[in-house]
Every structure is written in C-alpha cells, then in structure tokens.
Amino acid sequence: MSNNDIFVNIVRFIVLVFLQVLVLNNVNIAGYVNPYLYIFFIIMYPLDGNKGLLIFLSFLLGLSIDVFEDSGGVHAAACSFIAYIRPVVLKYSFGVSYEYNSVKIKKADPMERLTYISSLVLMHHFVMFSLEIFSINHIGLLFTSTLFSGIFTIVVMACTMILFNKKSA
Fold first, then answer.
1. What is the number of domains present in the chain?
2. Is residue 121 part of a domain?
3. pTM over cut 0.85
4. Does residue 169 lie within any of the structural domains?
5. Please, are residues 36 and 155 in contact by the beta-carbon 8 Å criterion?
6. Are the C-beta atoms of 131 and 111 separated by less than 8 Å?
7. Percent of the chain scored above 90 by pLDDT?
8. Which residue range is the domain that position 32 belongs to?
C-alpha cells in the first residue's frame, strides 16, 4: 500500500466511525431497520493490503462502535468475521479476476460488485443480530432484522459509492 492509501484508509476509518455513531445510529425505521455504513471500510479496504492487518483493523472498527453503543462486542465479532471471510467472498464474486489481482472494486461489473457487497453485508448483519438476539425463539426477528437492515445498508452503500466515485474524464 502506498502512503496515499494509508492516509485514505485512516480518514475513512475515523469518518465512518463518527458518521455511524453520531448520525446513522439515530436512524431507526420501524424499530429494527438501521443502516450500518461503517462496514464500508472493510469492503473498500485495498485488495493488495495486508489481510492480517485488515482483520485487526476490522476488530478495532467493530470495537469502536461497540464502545459507543455499549453493545458488548457484537460489532467487533461481526466485523472480524467478515474481514476473515472476505477473500472467499472476493473469489466467488469476482472469480478469475480476483485470483490474478486485476480487480478494482469501483470499476468492476455492477452485478459482481453487488454480489460482493450484498454477501458481506448480509453475513455481517446475520452474525451481528445472531449474537445480539441470541435466542432460537426469536428466529423471525433475526431474519427480519438481517434482511431489512441489510437491504437498507446496501442501498446506503451504493449511494455512497455513486456519490464519492471519481469521474474519469
């Protein structure tokens, strides 16, 4: 990673934590739909970056959210899980392109990008809500929360990617 990538990732980490804590945690639709944009950091982490560092930073990201939300580590566990599983998701989302390190997430085919983002978001939400609810009696709430918060998060992430996508003239 270059110095520019390191700076961009530090700024992205800090901005996403504060945006999540100060703004997005206050968005609550129908009692269980909440966008979790902070995982955008894990999704947009450079593909050639250190994978061990990504898992550590993902844990810190989730822990930061847990500290502000007083949620007992569910965000840290979910972030660590998706950081660990990310190479597998990249491989089935982008196929051979990922194996040859020729993938640019911002320039990838829209369906491949949607598959990648949706998979990680839904896995994150499923793990997070499973640990938060932690009861087989509330399986309906688990799937409802995962599905609707996941869809809302995917839409917010897609809008963020469109908004901050650099135009090449």
1. 1
2. yes
3. yes
4. no
5. no
6. no
7. 45
8. 3-164
